[in-house]
Design a protein that fits this description.
Structural class: mainly alpha
Helix content: 55-70%
Shape: rod-shaped
Number of strands: 0
Low-confidence stretches: none
Largest sheet: none
Radius of gyration: 33 Å
Length: about 150
């Protein structure tokens, strides 16, 4: 048998219409021969004989499910790609705006009065810069220092 799933050749809009016809056939207890689905069923009778109704249902719903699943994957891939772009942007932003040792030494050592002993040593600052990215709040909040 050289059968072709006719539903795979249909557009999404056509599948929606065919599914609506299928629901009507289910409700009415049979296929209307004057509908598109009724004509497809007549073609399927050549290939499936007594199994025509079940094969029509299987191939219609299988095609719809395949397209739905494909759209889900495409949607998820779009989300993943968007997240990756966002993640790359975030990494770039952090690296471009993180302060270095000189900034921290200035801020935490030089800003104390000359008579106070700095709490932050060069070693503390070097270790912190080696372990963390530090971004001043005014960079993130887009505000001037208060």
């Amino acid at each position: 048998m050289n059968h072709v799933n006719i539903f795979e050749t249909k557009t999404d809009l056509e599948l929606m219409s065919l599914y609506a016809e299928f629901l009507d056939a289910e409700k009415n207890g049979g296929f209307d021969e004057n509908t598109e689905l009724g004509k497809i069923k007549a073609e399927y009778e050549k290939d499936f004989g007594a199994n025509t109704v079940i094969m029509t249902q299987i191939e219609l719903t299988h095609t719809i499910a395949d397209r739905w699943l494909k759209s889900c994957f495409e949607s998820e891939n779009d989300k993943i790609f968007s997240f990756q772009l966002s993640n790359e942007f975030t990494k770039k932003f952090i690296k471009e705006n993180a302060v270095d040792e000189g900034f921290l030494q200035d801020w935490y050592q030089s800003s104390v009065s000359e008579t106070d002993t700095p709490v932050w040593t060069d070693e503390h600052i070097a270790e912190m810069v080696g372990d963390f990215y530090l971004i001043p709040k005014e960079v993130v909040d887009k505000r001037d220092k208060e």
